[in-house]
Design a protein that fits this description.
By secondary structure, this protein is mainly alpha-helical. It is built from five helices and no strands. It starts with 13 loop residues before the first helix and ends in a 7-residue tail after the last helix.
């Protein structure tokens, strides 16, 4: 139960509800889209500078494991963490690297 001094802080007026609705519409959830775009862009840049080396794949997997560890520790404290989801989905990119490089465009 909140202290008596803070009891009136939960009463919202019309202006509070309008501002809260605007923030929810324009800001909340948009960071997932921005971070997903930046994650894909960074993978694309790394892949374009790859030169078809196996060390790229190992280095990428190492980075993803570190991302998963950071996300897991963060998930212990905050349940809305996205880092572990990025790490798990990024491992699927390893299986499609040949397609992304252009392996699918070769004629049969």
């Amino acid at each position: 139960m909140p202290p008596k001094i803070h009891e009136g802080f939960t009463n919202h007026n019309l202006a509070d509800n309008i501002v809260s609705g605007i923030i929810r519409f324009f800001v909340s959830g948009k960071f997932y889209m921005i971070f997903s775009f930046l994650f894909g862009l960074s993978f694309s840049i790394q892949l374009s500078r790859n030169d078809n080396e196996r060390s790229f794949i190992l280095r990428f997997i190492w980075r993803i494991l570190i991302l998963f560890a950071i996300g897991f520790v963060h998930h212990l404290h905050y349940r809305g963490d996205i880092l572990t989801i990025y790490a798990v989905l990024a491992l699927s990119l390893v299986f499609f690297i040949d397609c992304l490089i252009g392996g699918y465009s070769s004629s049969p």
